[in-house]
Fold:
Amino acid sequence: MQQKKLKVYFTSDVHGYFYPTTYGDMDVKPVGLFGCAADFNKDDETLIIDGGDILQGSAFAYYCRQVADSPEVIADIMNDCGYDYYTLGNHDFNYGLEYQAAYRSRNNGVCVCQNITDEAGNTLFPWKLHTMKNGLRVGIVGIVTDYVNIWEKEENLKGIHITDPFEAAKNALAQMKEQTDLTICIYHGGFECDLESGETLSQTTENVGYRICNELDFYILLTGHQHMSVPGRDISGTYTVQPCDNAKEYQYLEVTMTDHEKSIRSELRQSDAAKGTVLADKYRSTENAVQAWLNQPIGHLSRAILPEEKVKMALYGSPIADFLNRIQLHFSGAMLSSVGLANEIAGFRSEVSTRDIIATYPYPNTLVVCEITGKQLKNVMERSAEYFAYDKDGNVCVSDSFLIPKVEHYNYDYYMGMDFKINPENPIGSRIEGLSKDGKPVLDDDKFTICLNNYRYSGAGGYDVYTECPLVKEINVEMVELIMDYFHEYPYIEV
Structure:
């Protein structure tokens, strides 16, 4: 009886974190691809696979785009790590198709993303048949959440279409079956259901991993996007895993096949900075350039404004959010402003550096001004107020709906330009009290202009009402640059 093996090393949502740092300070952190890749033992039975979101997220990635204007170093890193296949994540479109194409052309790995087509409907990155040295025929398909269509700027998707990922995977699987011994789907998306109970957690189609497992019979489903660890498990005959973000860990899978059966096991393995020194040294000149750039002073605040406990900031206000809203109002001329804070933020020291800005606003968002009625304003503010719940001891806490299946503190918005109070004791939908503008109660028919980021204007995060708000203007400059411009205009700022 002949035995054949397949070993898979899988990462996802690396977000440009190669070194063991989060760039908010100089401390070594348990993150970074180099600390994972040192363990990749590549032989004739091995495939190394990435699930997307590599080009955006860290200061290193931002430097490659905005300062060096070159994704080649990221592709070179992926080549040195030995990647065979990868799919694209939603954030891999943030810097435009030209930048992405330069990355793909330099990357020695094969891009598979079945639900990306050209305008004629042709699949641009179709599934691949990979025959191992031992004769094992592996079918590999990639798909990305079609919520890219909602989140991404129109100009960054010009000439392509992102179709339904489930249907694309289904069609590819039908083609694969007769030609392969086992099938792998790389899905830049996660699970819409609780993996233990099967209970539906989300009514959107952003994540459809559970449906893929239930309705399609891939042997392996590799997932990402949700930034959470999912140890290996069988769901309706499909074995699935997910590593968390920023290369804190990777998944190792091992398949054993005989003439009559196949078995699979997996391990979740942590990044270890001490092991990644060889690759780290190779790219040290780029990392040193990034660190020098981050340390450049930008301006001064009258005092440091640093993050506090999340519920406290959300309930009582955040000087960090106030400062960002202040900048948005300055450049937009809008009457109102709203801003969300990333899951993890560094805040601003009194002597502000580029590092502070990047570590506090890590997204490539631009700004939008739209017209909003009083009724719509109350609607979006009540959506933010769903953030609050009560724990078993009667203390205000973060609602599970912002934590499960994905941590989404960034979907809580802070507002400026009106007066109001949040009362978490009230039922959802009636928590905003005393909403007024310039001393006058806000009426349903009142009209205002509000500045927000392009992500939120897409309706993302449960803010569908924004899609009904007429566009007034767009500010097509990334928020990070606007923050820097604000300091150039006002080198010393009272906060």
In short: The chain has two domains: 4-290, 296-493. Residues 251 and 268 are 5 Å apart (CA to CA).
